[in-house]
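Quick one: sequence plus NAP SMILES, need structure tokens.
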Amino acid sequence: MSTISLPGGTWTLGDLTVTRFGYGAMQLAGPGVMGPPADPDGALAVLREAVDLGITHIDTAAVYGPRVTNQLIREALHPYPESLHIATKVGATRDENGGWPPARRPADLRRAVHDNLETLGLDVLDLVNLRLGDARGPQPGSLAEPFETLAELQRQGLIRHLGVSNATHEQVTEARTIAPIVCVQNMYNLAHRHDDELIDELADEGIAYVPFFPLGGFSPLQSSALSAVAARLGATPMSVALAWLLRRSPNILLIAGTSSVTHLRENVAGAGLALSDDDLAELDKIGR
Ligand SMILES: NC(=O)c1ccc[n+]([C@@H]2O[C@H](COP(=O)([O-])OP(=O)(O)OC[C@H]3O[C@@H](n4cnc5c(N)ncnc54)[C@H](OP(=O)(O)O)[C@@H]3O)[C@@H](O)[C@H]2O)c1
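Reply:
Sure thing.
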């Protein structure tokens, strides 16, 4: 077990306790999230290090690779420690160009849930997010049919908890009329703050908000204000961005991605950075 302590404490997703500092596995697949990684042993080492560091929340999807990150997780960590909870997503597929077309018909969703169960080597999935919208972001429209399908799979005992991803505020509200949700996974970081109001509402309701692209995703976060605060604190901009998210709201869970053990350790250490009120005020201006 590592001597670096994990910042942020824990959060409860339904009946599952997870560390607020989690890990997002998408970056472990090959370029464009297609195919195997260039360094499979390195990918397995990152996953094992995540668990050694005490992380108990890993985010993945059968469409990463496809199946690559799930298979890596299984190879590195199965049989899973009891404390480890794996969240996955359904609602999109991959095309021959590496695109992410929607796949939200009931048959698509049933197939995707079984694909995740099989590739992860599980009988029940801890948390399944219905991924909505498209690559441009959330799109309006009812989620009733796909979300009812997942609620049915939950009643059948294949899924413990449900969430929604890439969702509009209205879709979050609609989902909750169909079945309880334990999280919303949307794009959010220091520079993209469309969901500020939603985060506060979910916090009041005890629902987690799990930002994807917490470090900017494929285009790393860049901002002179972020660099200035980082320089003042003798920290990296990545550390400041993660520490800010942990401070932003207690219901925010981190799933920052990396394919590097060194970056993973840096992120764990960096997210524990103490930010003063002045730092927060300066950072707050970036995305507002
Ligand atoms: N629901 C959705 O639609 C959706 C969409 C996208 C992502 N996700 C989930 O969100 C998770 C996080 O997103 P993400 O991984 O795409 O983006 P991210 O966490 O914002 O950024 C990952 C990028 O930052 C780099 N990085 C990480 N730590 C670093 C460090 N200390 N120094 C320098 N570079 C660093 C990584 O490169 P290295 O590999 O070199 O460290 C990688 O390129 C994914 O793993 C996935 O599970 C969900």
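Residues 121 and 136 are 32 Å apart (CA to CA). The beta strands are 10-13, 16-19, 23-24, 57-59, 85-90, 125-131, 159-165, 183-185, 208-209.
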